[in-house]
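Standup notes
- DV: blocked on the single-chain target, sequence here:
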Amino acid sequence: MSPVLRALRPREPMPDFVRAALEVRGLTRAYDARPAYQRNDYLLWINKVKRADTKQRHLAQMLDELAAGDVYMGMAWTGR
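- DV (later): unblocked, structure below
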């Protein structure tokens, strides 16, 4: 019996303002260390909203979670 395959979500592009914020906060390495699905989820979460203030709020939460290291989308995360 063959395994059930799920379609992968498309990869989200990283906006320049997200890249710049990661660099300013020194969190590029922490971002790159996260699993691909988490990086894509964060970018989708930021990219999908229309209002600039909401984008900034999502970005701030992502940066705070990366800095903490043990949180992902408001949930405890232990890493690999």
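- Follow-up: DSSP finds four helices and two strands in the chain.
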